[in-house]
Amino acid sequence: MASILRTRAAPFTRSLISANRPGVSNFSRILTRKYTSANPGTGETPPDPSTKSSTNILALVGIGAIVVVGGAFYAFSSNDTTAKSTIQAAKVATNFVPSKTDYQKVYNKIASLLDASEYDDGSYAPVLIRLAWHASGTYDEKTNTGGSNYATMRFAPESLHGANNGLVVARNLMEQVKKEFPWISYGDLWTLAGVAAIQEMQGPKIPWRPGRIDGHEKDVTPDGRLPDAAQGQKHIRDIFYRMGFNDQEIVALIGAHAVGRCHPDRSGFEGPWTFSPTTFTNHFYKLLLEEKWVWRKWSGPKQLEDKKTKSLMMLPADYALVEDKSFKSYVKKYADDENVFFSDFSKAFSKLLELGVPSSQWVTPEPWNMKTLDEQADK
């Protein structure tokens, strides 16, 4: 997500929005949109240790230096994956978990880091969606391996897979959050980052819940499980069907290409999908259907560009959506109605983020809706 489609690391997202969508506050537009359809066109502040909430401190004390699970004792070490995983499991087993309020604080910290004038189009949000997507999209339904549960992208060779090129930017950014909230697992942190990124870019609410644990190097997934943006319909179905998605869900998920851009030094591909790559809308579908797309003449990999402005791009796997009868029916559906797209995307993305996580690990039976910064400010 670096695209949903494996642009060998191209960013998994992109977006275009109408400048006056009903129900979106001016404050939100100022906060999240540096690049809009009306104006086509990161700074990282280390966390202050003194700002840790008392709740966070109590959580750390409660978890303690020694955890008892299944009769075994594990010494806590911030560098020991086994200890980290055991602690997370212990929190679930004993019902000793941070509250929703604590996770909201993590969300807020992530949201505060999104605005970045020196990165891409002024926001880290698209690359964080890609991080959440690529951390979850390795799931194999038949073998029940991969997915977001173990956060295995922390380890080589998965961190070095071509599809994950450039995601070190997102992982390093999230280390700022991890230092302030060390009790959260990487799997929960990365997926919550994707939720925050979508919601703060004026996208739909994404139901989310915690419970993922940090795994080991032995849990690293093999290369080739993420979509290859240079491929067509058969490849797309093979990849997504393996995860348990159908055609409708496939098209909905690829709609995240409404935001972000591809980078030649990561995927080889270049450019944004839409005119406003930091606002989440249905314009990926509209442009796919309404613009005239031609093959770009350049030295890079095969990709399309819009004939009119030559400033936008589509990947071969994107264009495959309008060359396939089943896929195209959903492209038309989402191009016609953004609300329908938002609803379907929300369900599919929430499902994606939970792939590979045993139901016994969830700390709440029903996912939560985390509040955006705007919603909290209004309240």
From TrEMBL:
Q: Which GO terms describe its biological process?
A: cellular response to oxidative stress; hydrogen peroxide catabolic process; response to reactive oxygen species
Q: Which residues form the signal peptide?
A: none
EC number(s) given by UniProt: 1.11.1.-
On the tree of life, the source organism's domain of life is Eukaryota
What keywords is this UniProt entry annotated with? Heme, Iron, Membrane, Metal-binding, Mitochondrion, Oxidoreductase, Peroxidase, Transit peptide, Transmembrane, Transmembrane helix
Task: Give a GO molecular function annotation for the protein.
Answer: heme binding
Domain Plant heme peroxidase family profile residue range list: 91-357
Report one GO cellular component: mitochondrial matrix
The record's subcellular location field reads: Mitochondrion intermembrane space; Mitochondrion matrix
One short Pfam name that applies is peroxidase
The record's catalysed reaction(s) read: 2 Fe(II)-[cytochrome c] + H2O2 + 2 H(+) = 2 Fe(III)-[cytochrome c] + 2 H2O
Family according to the record:
Belongs to the peroxidase family. Cytochrome c peroxidase subfamily.
Q: What this chain does, per the record?
A: Destroys radicals which are normally produced within the cells and which are toxic to biological systems.
Q: What is this protein called?
A: Peroxidase
Tell me the organism: Clathrus columnatus
